């Protein structure tokens, strides 16, 4: 595999590792078709990300930024910085990187699944939803041109166990805002059930290894004085693996951006906005662009 | 006060699911001790290695007894049951159960490896590894076709045994590593029958409809 030539994909920041797991021994992974090695320099202790060239030698180091417990890098010249997650800086926040999992799907499919509430009762039964409370009420989805992000606000859904703290199964109406700050990063904000005046933030950082093969890590920024670290991990991991099974069955694996390709319903308003946003950017990596747009390299 | 046996487990692990499923089906009480296997690698740290020097999950701690292989945990629990037929005494049926038990550990190990690779690896599982899994499933499929013709719905006896429990996770979870259920109609029928057993529990990665 070789590095993509898609300019939109190249000019973005990607999380490619968990910073605390990087050692002196180079770890091999792949980003946008290019093999990369991640290690910690023996002299300076700084984290390096370097492309692995043919023959196995390393190319020039790529830019590296450590944020949100992750190592971010890019092949291009992103015109926007890494997403700003204000909650991450609050002193009592618990920052929980939930581990990297491999998914046979495209990055945009993974983002779209994260934005979808309609599947909660069927895929995350008795956790994020349950029958008969299957209705997705109206909410607002928009492309915010000033910040170049997609937002879906005013979402609400009945959740039997919407967070690790909610053990009694009595359920609550969860109020959720979704945010797509970059084509391969998706987030949600929800009222923290154990601290109702504050919001939890959950980000999903996607590392597209190829167009149809990704790794992804959920990172949570929680207000939760109750749950153990392992409880928080396992709660999120179970949800993530339930999604993974659904995602791997979706065809085509790349996300069609043609408005006619898949029939949306009212519940898909966020997905429609995301697809429009990607089409306007001309992202061809992990997508199927509308006919005639952006001949693929 | 009764001290319950403890099960050290990771909820996404197929070997741990074998034990969870068995305990639930057989109605054996225990206390779950969740281990941060991914991403924390807690099973490789000194505190855990004092319990199981092999650094593997699941681990069963029942007083002085420590068991660290899913098949032996399930076997020991079935042996301790006062009622139920999960481990038949009849030599022929017992032999069949043991034969499938060894199969689940040896021949289905490829399924565990393929799933591990698909979930956590940098590459998809190799075609060779997937072919190895399919060969094992073909043996199971052929067996269950013959059992069905003979009027039986379970692997080793007229009623479900621990053989069915120990074989179930590898097949039920095979979509996790890109092997489809469609080519194995007899195993799909068996999988549907497993779902109807009182106490059946599922895990993420197992499709609701087969």
Overall description:
- The complex is a heterodimer of chains A (297) and B (210).
- Chain A has 297 residues and is α+β, with helices and mostly antiparallel strands.
- Chain A folds into two domains: 7-73, Single Sheet (N-terminal domain of TfIIb); 86-250, Alpha-Beta Complex (Naphthalene 1,2-dioxygenase Alpha Subunit, Chain A, domain 1).
- Chain A is built from five helices and 16 strands.
- Chain A has helices spanning 7-10, 107-115, 120-123, 229-248, 269-281; strands spanning 14-18, 27-31, 34-40, 47-51, 64-67, 70-73, 94-97, 101-103, 140-144, 149-159, 172-182, 185-192, 195-210, 213-222, 255-256, 287-288.
- In chain A, strands 7, 8, 9, 10, 11, 12, 13 and 14 form an eight-stranded antiparallel sheet that branches. A three-stranded antiparallel sheet of chain A has the order 1-6-5, with no helix packed on it.
- In chain A, a hairpin with a 2-residue loop joins strand 11 and strand 12 (185-192).
- The longest helix of chain A has 20 residues, at 229-248.
- Chain A starts with 6 loop residues before the first helix and ends in a 9-residue tail after the last strand.
- Chain B is of the alpha+beta class and 210 residues long.
- Chain B has two domains: 6-81, Glutaredoxin (3-Layer(aba) Sandwich), CATH 3.40.30; 91-196, Glutathione S-transferase Yfyf (Class Pi), Chain A, domain 2 (Up-down Bundle), CATH 1.20.1050.10.
- Helices cover 48% and strands 7% of the residues of chain B.
- Chain B is built from eight helices and four strands, in the order βαβαββαααααα.
- In chain B, helix 1 crosses helix 7, helix 5 packs across helix 6 and helix 6 crosses helix 8.
- Chain B is globular and about 50 Å long.
- The termini of chain B are far apart.
- The mean pLDDT of chain B is 96.
- Chain A binds chain B through residues 18, 21, 28-30, 97-102, 104, 122, 209, 213, 215, 229-231, 233-234, 237-239, 241-242, 244-245, 248-249, and chain B through 10-12, 34-36, 38-40, 42, 118-122, 124, 175-176, 178, 204-208.
- Chain B: Residues 90-210 form the GST C-terminal domain.
- Chain B: InterPro entries: Glutathione-S-Trfase_C-like, Glutathione-S-Trfase_C_sf, Glutathione_S-Trfase_N, Thioredoxin-like_sf.
- Chain B: It comes from Komagataeibacter melaceti.
